[in-house]
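Fold these two proteins, one after the other.
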Amino acid sequence: MQAKDTLINLDDSSFIKDSKVKLINTGNDIQLRLAQWPPSTGTEPKGTVLIVQGYSEFIEKYEEVVSEFRDKGYSVVAYDSRGQGLSTRFISDFHKGYVDSYSAMVNDLQQVYDEVVSTLPRPHILLAHSMGGNVSMRFLQEKKPVFDHAFLSAPMLAWNEPVGAVSMLASALVFLGRGEKYAIGAGPPNSDIKAAISERLSSDKNRVNKVASYCAKEARLWMGGPTWQWVKEASKSILVAVTKANCVKVTTSTTILSPLDDVVISGANHKTLASYNKNIECIEFTGAKHEILIEEDIHREKFWNTFHSVFPK
């Protein structure tokens, strides 16, 4: 399914009017939808923030976060990961989570940095969530250090199930030709979008309603569960990212934001990874669900205090 170089318009806000949207060609007919914004302050940018999204997310979900960074004087860049949002999809059923390779997503991040972020003012700040946190941790371990700081929100570095066993099962089922089938416990998206988001991702009704409005307007934005192919690649990537030998390679100052009421992923490895490397710190968010950046104000205020402890107002 082809990518689209447009943002979904709900209310003609500056989020839409001030954006520049384009497609990044990554090769093999895979295109990433990318958007960028200047500061809303009318001043020279104080720096540039790159947002790397989690599973099933899309650029518009970060409307509030983008607007806040712009109001603080930053340029912002965000893109839809391959296989979701309005980037190229791999299979015809767009409700299914499917990706060819997490290593390819690490390379996508490098390409977005080289083609877009590198041309914009420093400091260069990486803000990644969940799946994007996994991809970003791999990037920080494997690629040349280019970011001045990284904030990883609920990075997907463990599951509630044994990752090694999941990896073996998923690999076997993909080998048997079931890669495009939903994984155990996964299925088509819940028709009650608001209920599904509230149950697992956020306690803030207004922010949940906004996300649901985007999904209701563009069907491709509301995804169901992952396929066995996605699980295979995700579990392989987790096993790579959490080894001590790889964690010690991180030279970029990195903050892990760990929500303690997360039922989507396990935060068990967050503090462990921080213990491996003095460049990594872990800050826990008591009472926060998986999506800290669309959670209630008390959790978002803690995020902004954490951000400003590194980059003062």
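Now the second one:
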Amino acid sequence: MIKVLQKSILLITFAIIIAGLFGLSYAIDQTTGTEVLEQAVPEEPVTVEVPSMMYSVGIGDILSINIKDSPEFSGNFPVHDKGWIMYPMLGEIKAAGLTLLEIEAAIKEKLEKEYLYDPVVNISINRYGSRKVEILGGMGNPGAYYISGTTRLFDLFIRAHMIYSNYGENMKGRMVRILRKGAVDGKTEKDSAVLLIDLFKLLVDVDDEANIYLQDGDIIYVPGGTAYIYVVGEVMRPGSFTHQMDMTVLKAITLAGGPTKAADVNNTFVKRIINDKEVVKVKVEMPDVLQPEDIVEVPLSFW
């Protein structure tokens, strides 16, 4: 009897060893109360987001700059409010609005010119600063969103609950309009420029070029089946509202919950898109009548 027991213990031990080697484990069958072997479920692989070298750096980001074999030129550098980093020996270097590749090239050129022979420069993002964008139009939850890192247009569509029923077969030829400050296609606008994104290419063709990276301050307008006006900035409930005949600036701000305590209502203005290309900034008064697709912006008071 003892020998039989010893033999059973050896067999169980051997089975446990084999189970460990082949990724098997013991579990209790809840119906019979007996132990059964089951295949171990592999853990999900850990993925780390690697920022694109085409990522546009913004204020508040912290850059990790490494110069091979030159620790005196390496470290973490925050992008200050005026858009530059303070770099050893070189002083202020423009960073905001440039890609990581462009900053790498600028630093390499300056170091090579003054201090190092053929320096190897590597830049990555140590930490992302918070950025705010606004999405308006055919969304379940339009309004302001804070983004960080390499957030792309479709990522925001998911967060804002895009209403696909607004489009259906009519999606072809519909354009998402993005109001963006700064340079577009080599042309610098004083205020804003308009980027046009083909909705069909983005959602149906899954075109990577259409799924652009978002930047701080972007205002994204997604067309819907109804004419809207949009209220952004210092209001209680920024978002989109159905355009009505003779709708005034005052009524639009009222629909948005009214101004916040920090609002400068007297300097309210409208951004109006002309021919899908030009953005006109219009100073308005409360009784002024709005046009469909106007964007009413209530600025922050500095007093």
